[in-house]
Design a protein that fits this description.
The chain is of the alpha+beta class. Among the domains are: about 10-150, Adenine-n6-DNA-methyltransferase TaqI, Chain A, domain 2; about 215-360, DNA methylase specificity domains (Adenine-n6-DNA-methyltransferase TaqI, Chain A, domain 2), CATH 3.90.220. About 40% of the residues lie in helices and about 20% in strands. The strands form nine sheets. Strands 2-5-8-3-4 form a five-stranded mixed beta sheet. Strands 12-21-17-19 form a four-stranded antiparallel beta sheet. Strands 7-6-9 form a three-stranded antiparallel beta sheet. The radius of gyration is 32 Å and the shape is elongated.
Length: about 450
């Protein structure tokens, strides 16, 4: 990915090591860390939001490893995958894992400006390219020093950071609100199914038709024509007909992606599905066991051993049965009767046949199916709009960062001291800072 962009005259393109001391940290042994000190580990930082998930003291962690010391205002950068690119600004002093690098702001670079640069697509692309290691790749010190960076006048850095703070706060609020939509839609669909299978959804229809609520309470075994277990034969990636498995049942409908196939003619003849067959997932995790869908005859298919095929009798519509089994009452029944194994739960055909539910006339079942389909189609449209909006929101942050670091987010002030002057000052300060070299004999001085 190329990021060659024209920058304002007062800006500089440089390497990260030109402006900060990447990788130079104050290391502290556990015995020297006060028990009430804040200890930051990589798992404490949420990757995309930079939100702190928890704050733990040294007494709470009792870590035995060496730590890096940091102070309030330092930018803490996670250099190790899968935590690579986690970044947060420290709001108080503390200690962190040596896989977190405290980056210290200085007179040439504002901490928040640095923080946002570490989230910029150019920096992220560079890190993805150069991070090395077989099991847990990391950004090494030398590579970190050579990472690309951009430097604006210090006052403009602060204006950019202020603007990004305000805008990204609104983006985060939008993301948080959108994050509630899937749960709202799930509750809506469950409420529709609850109303559909209790009689509430068609109450006005019965009144208009002059009908009383006289639904029969039935057991599934009394209104179904049969229950059959699926094929136990091994499937293949290619073949004559697809074999529907438990993963192909999603949210009450069949998902025709991720298919396996069979070419065994005897298996195909024995387990070939007919339109209207209801597929019940008899073995799965405790949360998913009992999910169902209706085979609509979309294409020839058979079904695998973890599924039970239910064929409905003349009093029962397949879609109405599907709504009952996926309704809150149906899910609750599955939860109560499942047999739990080490990692999976099971509901056999006998327990499935004992499922009890309310059964209206075929005419009312038909009206229920029509109304549920209409309401679910409305929910599907909302979900599609949510998905589109979510993608747009996810593009906002990188778009804003790209604009900010092109110098387009805030206006330039001709009175601001150019970044090149700041950079020269930093270089001069570094060149003039000398420390005695430790060792025996005559003392020497090293330029840092």
């Amino acid at each position: 990915m190329s990021f060659k962009e024209e920058l304002p005259e007062s800006w500089c393109s440089l390497q990260l090591g030109d402006v900060i001391d990447y990788g130079k940290t104050d290391k502290v042994e556990p015995k020297d860390i006060p028990s009430d000190s804040w200890i930051v580990e990589l798992e404490d930082i949420e990757k995309d939001s930079s939100r702190l998930l928890q704050r733990v003291t040294f007494a709470g962690r009792q870590s035995k490893s060496t730590k890096n010391h940091f102070v309030a205002g330092d930018v803490l950068y996670g250099k190790l995958r899968p935590y690579l690119n986690k970044v947060v600004i420290a709001d108080s002093d503390g200690y962190c894992s040596t896989e977190i690098i405290p980056l210290k702001p200085n007179p040439a670079i504002d901490g928040r400006f640095l923080f946002y640069w570490l989230k910029h697509p150019e920096f992220l692309d560079y890190v993805a390219t150069v991070s090395h290691g077989i099991n847990m790749p990391r950004l090494g010190t030398e590579a970190g020093m050579q990472a690309p960076a951009r430097l604006a006048p210090i006052n403009e850095q602060k204006r950019i950071a202020d603007k990004l703070d305000a805008l990204l706060k609104r983006v985060d609020a939008c993301r948080e609100r959108l994050g509630r939509v899937p749960l709202i839609l799930k509750r809506f669909r469950q409420a529709v199914l609850a109303a559909a299978t209790s009689g509430a959804l068609t109450e006005d229809w019965r009144e208009a038709s002059g009908l009383e609520f006289n639904w029969d309470e039935v057991k599934l075994g009394d209104v179904a024509d049969g229950f059959s277990y699926g094929s136990a034969a091994k499937s293949a990636k290619d073949g004559k007909v697809p074999v529907l498995r438990m993963g192909n049942i999603q949210n009450g409908v069949l998902d025709w992606s991720d298919l396996v196939f069979s070419s065994d003619l005897q298996e195909i003849k024995k387990y070939l599905l007919s339109a209207g067959d209801v597929l019940f997932n008899r073995t799965n995790s405790p949360e998913l066991v009992g999910k169902t869908a209706v085979f609509k005859g979309e294409r020839d298919a058979i079904y695998a051993g973890y599924l039970i095929r239910v064929r409905c009798g003349e009093r029962l519509l397949p879609d109405y049965l599907n709504y009952n089994l996926n309704s809150p009452a149906g899910r609750d029944y599955c939860w109560q009767v499942k047999s739990d194994g080490v990692s999976q739960s099971n509901i056999n055909a006998k327990k499935l046949a004992a499922f009890t539910f309310l059964l209206p006339s075929i005419k009312e079942q038909t009206e229920i199916v029509r109304r549920v389909e209409k309401l679910f189609a409305f929910a599907d449209k909302l979900e599609a709009r949510y998905t589109t909006a979510r993608k747009q929101v996810e593009h906002l942050t990188p778009a804003l960062l790209a604009k900010a670091f092109r110098g387009e987010l805030v206006e330039q002030d001709p009175n601001d001291e150019p970044a090149s002057v700041l950079l020269e000052r930093i270089r001069a300060e570094r060149a003039g800072h000398v420390v005695p070299k430790k060792g025996r004999g005559r003392k020497q001085k090293d330029t840092v």
